[in-house]
Amino acid sequence: MIPLNKFFIPLILGANLSAFGQSAEQLIPREAVTVFSINNTDLLQKVSIDEWITYDFMEEIHQELFDKSTENKTVKEAGLDFDQRLSLFYGKKQQFEVTGFTFGIKDQAALFRVFDDFDLVSSKYPGIKVYQSLFNNLILDHSHGLLIRVEPLELFLNQQTDSLWYSRGNLSPYYAMDEDQEMEDDALVKEDDHKNLLEKNYYELRDSLAYVYQKKFYQEVLDGLFLKKQSLYANDSTFRELLTHPSAGIFFMDNSRNIDRSKNLWYLKTVLPTLYLDVQDLYEGNVITGDLTLKNAQIQFDLKAHYSKALGSIYEEMNHANFDRNIAPYIHLNQPAYFTYTINLRSAYEKAFEVLVPILSKTKDPEISFNLLLLKLGNALVNKDALFNTYKGSLLMTFNGIQKVKTRKITFFYDEKTFEYGEREAEAEEDMPIFTFGFSTRRKDIPEMILEHFSQITSKFENKGDYWIYHKAIFDAAPLFFFNAKGLFIITNDRDLAENHRDGYGNDAINKQAIRSLKKSGTMAGYANIQEVVQRFPSDFLQPEQQPLLDFLRNKTGAITLKSGETTDRSTSLQMNYSFTDTERSSKHFLELLNTLYLLTK
Amino acid sequence: MKRFLFLLFFCCFILSSCIEIIDDLAVNLDGSGTFKYTINLSSSKVKVNSILALDSFDGKKVPKLGEIDAKFNQFKELLSKEKGITSVQLEFNRVEFIVKVTVGFTSIEGLQNGVKSVINQMDPHGEITQEEGNWIQWDTKTLQRIIPKLMEDRIKGETKADNELLRHGSYTCISRLPKPIQSCSNELCKLNPAKTAAMLRVNTLELKTNPALLKHTLTTSP
Fold it and tell me: Could you report the predicted ipTM of this complex, rounded to two decimals?
């Protein structure tokens, strides 16, 4: 008989070794908040390094690859091991940010033919080789590589420099420069003679601090990784689980550690720490994960947002809603883009009240306490039936393309005898993106009451019987239209919709199959015809941080569809499908999409 | 200054579906006179307004209306102090986006030196190119005019994609002289019946491809 311990111990050990066996992504530091990991795929091996480094996610991390060592080489020829994942990561803390990527190594000699600017430096970590170049650090752990850069944040560095600079009794560096501009040459020479050449000016001081902090933070990250063994992989079970997915790429974002989000809670953290901790609990486990799957002429992006049970209970209630069929007639068959949102606002409100009131009740702060009283009074006194019947929670947004809209302009006219000129008003036409926004309502009398009130205040609001016009509403030039129809209140700058299609587009509206798909989509559903939207959507109207998405879609054809999936008290899922009709290879689309996601989430 | 010019010139040419510029010069016998410059963006106010609503556009910070007002006032104040400038009036219609500058001067030389000096003061880093010579020359008998370098550079710098937008714009150059005009070197130039004023109107897109379109010499009778 085989003793149990002799049989099971090796089995357990083996299982552990297999589960925690070293892989390149275990070198991702715990500070990483966002990770994109690309699975081994034949397609990606064929991409040339020169092409790889055109992407922002690569460009930022290794400028030294922009030399002849990469010319005409593919990623495969760089000695990378495509049986391992290639993972890009980004993280931001209060004082520094960390970027980099991890990869597997098949041929170290080939790797150093590409990474030819790196020099070996001493390492205090057993078994770990450390190489450095002017910008980056290359860490080799046997057959796994980590290319990493750790930089102090500019704001932090400026604060530190200012603090040291002024504590030394210096005036503002900008003030000194202004003074110099007015000084005679002789005076400047004399001043230089009296200067202590060893005393650093503002920018030299800043450079020195940057160097010192860069070393400090870099050490901190590496010590965490190799001495304390605190990698993201070791610390986060969600991330570990995500790495087992067979998809072409995975996406991970720990929103609970997202510094830009936590900055919004800074006031609470400093002024009301107890309340901050409670609110922070709501965000606990707020991790977004995603799988990118390459299909034939299609990339599917499955996104899952994980959250705390408290927050999840609100989302779950919010999702107890059915798609409002009245919305469908207002989506044209050839609509360039549309988005529908279906929630049960009342249920979500009741749940949020139930979750938030106990949290707010704990604080002794008079301001919060007063706001809590107002919240309770509002809950007791406001007619919730009227409120939530006015806005139930379902809405529709459409992009109807670009139309010429009538505006007024000033033109100059000339007297042919004197060439003197004067001004006169004339009609003009300008291109304008046309949008429609509508929401489900059972109380059409309430928006009507508001519009009636506005019309008494200003003549710009005009009642045309079945609809309202707000003249010169947009940038003091173009009109806006409002109307109630079929249980919806609609706001649009589409004159054609307001004047001719108030009951919907009839046979020209989306078909039954599309409606069924909307119904099945749950909370969110969307569609965009890439060519129609990108070619016609005025990019000028987007904020700079939204531009990468449009840049990615430029020159592409196909469609993007969006639909939400199951929502539970711990997570909700969302699926985005990007189908392309052009002949570009899938890997290029994949990398471009990855790059866009990287820019949007950075 | 760069931000100020961003709205005035960059915006004008890059974004407007139509821009109207009037460059009106009146010279008296003693060389003094009045210079009026008008930029009309009223037919593009939706676009201008939409850009003003943004923080930045095309990598450049978009100035707020208050900042534009402040720059206009600075321009007015600085120009008023210049030697050879007798008066400066500036109107900015914030609804229609029409800017009108009227400058009184003692001599053409004084006018041009004054404008150059103010641009230098508001653009200390020399980001704006100015001509070494003058864009107007007057010797009591002949008046020579070309497009100011600053405007020429702005138009030339625009991309092909903006050509469609420039197509609908116009640049009108008016010259009013103290004596009857005998001849004009540019056949596109129109004289008034009294022959005391000449008007040359060109399309902004054509001006982009051929800045010499605006070049003309007016010769007065002795």
Answer: 0.84
